[in-house]
Amino acid sequence: CDPAAIATEICCCQGCANPSPDGSTEELDSRARDDLARILASHQPRTLARSARTAVRRPYLLLAATIGACLALLAFLFMDPRGVTSRPAYAVTPPQLVIVSSGETTNVSFDRLIACTKQKADATESQRESQFADWSLWSRVDTGDVHNAVAPTEHQVKWLPDRSGKSIVRWGRPWVPSPSVELTMREGDLVREETFRTGEFHVMFPEPPPSDPNALYRYLSVGHPISEQSTPELIAAVRDLRMEWRTSRVVNGAVLELLRRKKDLQLAGTAVDRLGRIGTAFIVNHRQGGLPTRTTLVFDATGNLLTVEETLTVTPGKLNVAIPATISYVAFR
Q1: Closest Cα to residue 137, out of 119, 124, 125, 150?
Q2: pLDDT tens track for 81-124
Q3: Contact at 8 Å (CB) between 281 and 297?
Q4: What element of type H or E holds 2?
Q5: CA distance 112 to 301
Q6: Distance (Å) of CA 68 to CA 22, 58, 73, 78
Q7: Is 232 left (phi over 0), alpha (psi -120 to 50) or beta?
Q8: How distant, in Å, are the alpha carbons of 65, 72, 101, 269 from that of 58?
Q9: For 231-235, which contacts have Cβ atoms below 8 Å and span 24 or more sequence positions?
Q10: How far apart, in whole angstroms, are the C-alpha atoms of residue 318 and residue 313?
């Protein structure tokens, strides 16, 4: 309601009640005097004024209520029921890898790395063990998702041909965007330790990997539809292999040969991985998971796979991350 309009309405009402609306000072007749006495006795102006004040106050009361509701909504969005600030606007993801052009071509880089796997006579066979740091956007702490830091886990896996073995998982070194972030875990804290009796350790690749590229392709295709999903699935198979086996030099050479055959895997340059190691980085862009994704592989100078990372490049879909966003990585030791 407009206060000025209300005031005008009050004046109009008062004007209608005035027996001498033109302001004349002439003596009133008896009828006018009776009307005036009746109007004054009714207290109508006081009632109207009270109504007007109420009407004028109503917009301010509405405004105050609206502001209060907005503040309550903001408090709900940014505070959890215990009064502790909730997750950030975006879930925290690792900084992007810094990759510098090396001046090589993709084929030259593959040739150089494959040659390195053959330089030394190495009779060492692949070992049934692995050690790696692992992180993904869905890492969990105390049964809750971690949204305010990158908290990797360190894995030590060792198993025997009878599929008995042991797995130890500890918290790795977290990365936080701000020193003010407090975490419940500490680097080195034990997450879990498991011992497996004969036949209990489940692996995807129970037999040693072959060193011939064609045989290795068939070996990796068991459980991984590489022929249908091409390069991203080949990379996933190689990653899964390394999570179970410490591969020999000759097997590393066969892995590089299979990757070189995939023409969509291109050299990116020289990179420093999550564990501070320098290597040669290759990338492939795909949509295997449904969203535009860049997968990065980093190899050291001997041709050993160091890191596999996945980064969303265009849209986060329903994920609460800022683009570009690395959503997972595995760094092999």
Answers
A1: 150
A2: 333 334 456 788 999 999 999 999 999 999 999 999 998 766 68
A3: yes
A4: none
A5: 9
A6: 49, 15, 9, 16
A7: alpha
A8: 11, 21, 67, 67
A9: 231/262, 231/264, 231/265, 231/284, 231/286, 232/284, 232/286, 232/288, 232/293, 232/295, 233/288, 234/258, 234/259, 234/262, 235/259, 235/284, 235/295, 235/297, 235/308
A10: 14
Alpha carbons 4 and 10: distance in angstroms, whole number: 10
- Phi and psi angles of residue 130, each rounded to the nearest 5 degrees, phi first: -160, 150
Cα distances from 205 to residues 131, 134, 162, 201, 332, in angstroms, run 16, 19, 13, 11, 17
Contacts of 232 (CB under 8 A, 6+ apart): 284, 286, 288, 293, 295
pTM, rounded to two decimals: 0.72
State the DSSP code for 184. Answer: S
181-220 pLDDT tens trace: 888 888 999 999 999 999 999 999 999 999 999 999 999 9
Q: Which helix (H) or strand (E) holds 290?
A: none
Q: Are the beta carbons of 283 and 231 closer than 8 angstroms?
A: no
Residue matched to tokens 């497996």? 196
Cα distance between residue 207 and residue 245, in whole Å: 10
pLDDT digits (tens, 9 = 90+) for 112-160: 999 999 987 666 899 999 999 999 987 655 545 556 789 999 999 999 9
Q: How far apart are CA 116 and CA 207, in angstroms?
A: 25
pLDDT at 62: 45
The CA R_g of the chain, rounded to the nearest whole Å, is 37
Peptide bond preceding 210: is omega within 30 degrees of 0, i.e. cis?
A: no
